[in-house]
Amino acid sequence: MKISVLSRLLLLMLVLTFLPGIGIAGAVDFRDGGDTIRKAWSTDLPEFFVTATRTQQKTDDIPVRLASIGSSEINIMPSITADAMLELVPGMNIDRSNGIFSKNASITMRGLNGTPRTLVLLDGIPLNKADGGGLNWNRIIPEFINRIEVSKGPTSSVYGSNAMGGVINIITERPTAKIQGQVKAYFGSDNTFGGLFSVGGKTGKADQGFYYTLNGFYRQGDGYIMVPDDSRDSMDVKNAMKEGLVAAKIGYQYGNRSYTEIEYSYFNDKRYDGFEVYEPGGGYNEYPTHAIRVTSNNNFSKAELLVSAYYQNEFYHRLTESMAAKKGNKYTLYKTDSRRIDQGIWSNLTLHGKKRMTYTLGLDIRSGSVDASDTYITSTDVLQNRGKMDFFALFGEYEWHIIKDRLILLAGLRYDVARFHNGSFVIEQPTTLTSFMADYPTEFSDATWQALSPKLGMKYIFSKNISGYLSYSRGFRPAMLDDMCKNGNVTKGFKLANPQLKPETIDNYEVGADWNPAPFLSFQPSVYLSYGHDFQYFVSTGDSINTGGDKDKPILRRENVSGVRIIGAEISGRWQIMKDLRLVANYAYNDSKITSFDSPAGNKDLTGKYIVEVPRNQAFAGIWWNNPIVQVTLTFNYKDFQWNDDENTIQTGPSNTFDLRLGHTFAEKFTVSATMQDIFNTRYYDSKGNLSPGRFIMLNLAYGFRGM
Amino acid sequence: MQNSPYRLTLKLLIPSLVLISFSVLFFSCKKGTAPIPPLIAFNRGAGYTFNDTTLEAGQKVKIGIRAITTNANLTYFSVRYDEGRSQILLDSGLNVPSLDYSLEVIKTNAPVEKWTFLIMDRNRMEMSVQINLTRSDSSKWGKIRTMRDLVLGGQENGLIGSFFSLDDTLVMNLQQAFENQSLADMVYYYGQYEGTLASPNEAEAPGFFTGPQGIANWAVKNETRYDTTMITAQMFDQSENDSLILSAYEPTAGKKKGKYIQPGMVFSFRSPEGKLGLIKIVEVSTAPAGSVKMNIKIQQ
Between the N and C ends of chain A, which has fewer C-beta atoms within 10 Å? Predict the structure, then answer.
């Protein structure tokens, strides 16, 4: 018998009602050593915000829709991965359909699809790679996060590339006590187990002295079979995984907001595809990644200078194993080795002038490269592609409090110039698998493009409880190196590299408000209208090619062909029902359509079609209840159906899941908790036809310490 | 009292740190091995050719290959043919400890053919053997059989059958072909690539001939290989022995179907029994219920 969503919610509420009465204890934040009891669900915005303008600024002064997730919420969310925390922010479309066994997660926002259209920062450093435009969410461990800041809407006037839907900035912990940290062990479904440690400390006074952190993390699991029972065969196996991270940070603080720090991290994982022919475990992905950054922030009385340098080296390894039934069970095995380097120096200087004016000037230099090879083991072919993109940017921002504490103007402009060079695609020892590619160029011409990203926003504070803002901003994302210097098979045909591909841009017009009708109640509505230009789609060249099968495939090239229109609205609300009972809810609507499709004859005109992988409606609700016996967090997530193909013929969803976390703290230092995801086991299919893991339970035991 | 939390901390921290660090390091390390190439040799058994040989054009020989792994399984086997330019007859991904393979070669008109058999293992270690087949100067051309004005119907043609037996010169409808699967060498249909001559084991043909007797339900599906040529209709008409057929034949080029057939086109083909031939398209009506008229010349 099927139980409706509403019935399930009521049933859970009923169970919770029988739990002991509301108490006074709070969620324990072990990064503060467990001694500090914080108010949970403190998702009200912090007093200062860094991400929207790249400088510390009073949150109330920023005419942008902002969101923040604090460590206290991270501690009590029924989430196992960092990306899932973003459910708290309206309109975040999180795709991690295989849970912790997913080789990656995807987060998009504001009615846009594709990871490259959202910029993600880790301590202010961009994680999006120049090669594919995406990032590896598995590298980010929730227990090591201090807070997450989200600046919504296009933010390229400050950050440049990828900031089309918005910016997510993940800020890690900086120790404040002499010694502090935590040790955690967990065991869960699918024989998943692991542990982590975090230790840090600080010498000297509050604003002065050395500090350090040392973090380690390891987890592994047997996984599950993603193929439904009725279509499973002997080659479908569990999608096992293992992953680990070590990170160390050391810094010196020499004043209020003045510090210099260096951080190094190494991550590695191995995630199997769940399909085994001959190789033990089948194909897999590995992302060993070295990352190092140096950040220096210097706060003078009337100025603040921030300089960051970073270097990220991801060695991507993949083993692909397949048995093509359509080709008479043709067996193929090949390995991919790709070195993706992203590095840069970012800097900005903020000056606080007279008459309540603030000026920020910035200079960014950035470079991304890829050096990749596909080496076949079931043939002699070796494919190599290389390419490099250099970026240079200048930006300026001007903030003026036209009427003190009432009317604020924020204007910004950024100029980016980028150069693609050293592009090549070479085939060695071709067989029938790749010889058809030999007729295409192996060296690609250099290309240069520019982007100008303006921003204009205004905020009016009507009273202490209500404010409103208007804004216009532009965002862009560059072409991916993968599209500029690599030929190869894609789902719809055979892709030719296009080194002349230009960036796509989006213009966003937005109005929003912050309303606190009572001290225990707040709402944050926003409405926006976005127009996208030069969006990139695969377009047929009119030619076809035989790639070895019975049928010829169309030859495709990614081109800037499409215009897009997005009408969106979102609202989030918080209600402190009682001292230890709080409700958080949000809803987002996005109508994302292709409005023009300027492609050569012979291509399907996608005008009027919806953008793929964008749910029209999304909703989230979370209730947190703290009592002396158990801390309870129950969340509900609804996602409308999404189109899977550009022609809008295949759809997945809708989906709705309930997640639950139960925790108990004892002896002030120890917490035992259970996280249960998808508690009603509503397994759904992703766009590739794979099943979600369903109900997944993780038991945690944590010990926190803090010594002053 | 103040020290006790630190002692507990250290007791928990140090083992955790060691455990996690080792775990991370352990699976990031890779073992190294010194690979040894696999072994490959010609089959020297009775009936096999294993040395460089001189043959008459059209003469058939059998070549056998035996390969075995030295440590890692064999993952790739290829057969390459070179008579001035290298072509691949067979590319095969596999995962086996040993391999036995035999190939029947029809000597083409080329003066010298170099056949290369290459094996590779899981460590990408390669080994290959080669044999040269030289055409005899005293080659005599073989006799051919000619079939004129042969008509095959499209998949929706209720009057003319779509299947053809080369040996029996027999046109069959679907029911007759189902009952004589081993005789059906060719099939005609009108589809994505317009008029198409195919083999029963070609991928798209089962989609046009469906039902209980449909090709998908056949136990035997013969394979005829087709290749487009530059031969003109006049050259076809004038040929009286298999010299033109052998000149047109490229061992590596055949496909399971000949597409976009038009009047005047000449296709080269190799029958399931290994006989070579040419097809000249005389007429084609462009509809599933239409037909194709053709002339065929095949080695006797």
Answer: N
> Chain B: residue nearest A185 by CA?
B16
Coil, strand or helix at A655? strand
* DSSP codes of every residue in A58-111: EGGG--S-EEEEEHHHHHHSS-SSTGGGGGGSTTEEEE-TTGGGSS--EEEETT
Looking up tokens 């051309």, which residue turns up? B141
Domains and CATH numbers, chain B: 39-135 (2.60.40.3550), 144-299 (no CATH)
Look at residue A35 in the predicted model and tell me its pLDDT: 33
Structure pTM? 0.83
Q: What is the pLDDT of residues A175-209, one digit of tens each?
A: 989 999 999 999 999 999 999 999 999 998 888 99
Give every CB contact of residue A392 below 8 A, 6+ residues apart in sequence.
Answer: A364, A365, A366, A416, A417, A418
Query: Which of A264, A268, A431 to mutate to probe the B interface, most B CBs <10 Å?
Result: A431
User: pLDDT tens digits, residue range B86-127?
Assistant: 788 888 999 999 999 999 888 888 889 999 999 999 999 999
Instruction: Return the structure tokens found at A185.
Output: 């062990």
Give residue ranges of A with CB < 8 Å to any B CB.
179, 181, 183, 195-197, 199, 214, 216-218, 242, 244-246, 266, 268, 270, 277-278, 288, 326, 330-333, 375-380, 431-433, 435, 550-551, 669, 703, 705, 707
CATH number for region A5-707: 2.40.170.20
Nearest-angstrom CA–CA distance, B138 and B141: 10
Rounded to a whole number, what is the distance in angstroms from the first to the last CA of chain B?
A: 104
* Count of CB atoms situated within 10 Å of the CB of A242: 18
**Residue of A277, A376, A550 with shortest CB distance to B202:** A550
Residue of A183, A244, A707 with shortest CB distance to B13:
A183
Are A705 and B256 in contact (CB < 8 Å)? Answer: no
Contact B78 A379 (CB under 8 A): yes
Q: Any idea where the domains of chain A sit in the sequence?
A: 5-707
Compute φ and ψ for B232, nearest 5 degrees: -85, 165
Chain A environment of B95 (Cβ under 8 Å): 277-278, 331, 333, 378
Any idea which residue has 């040395």 for tokens?
B51
Nearest to A574 by CA among A209, A70, A152, A59: A70
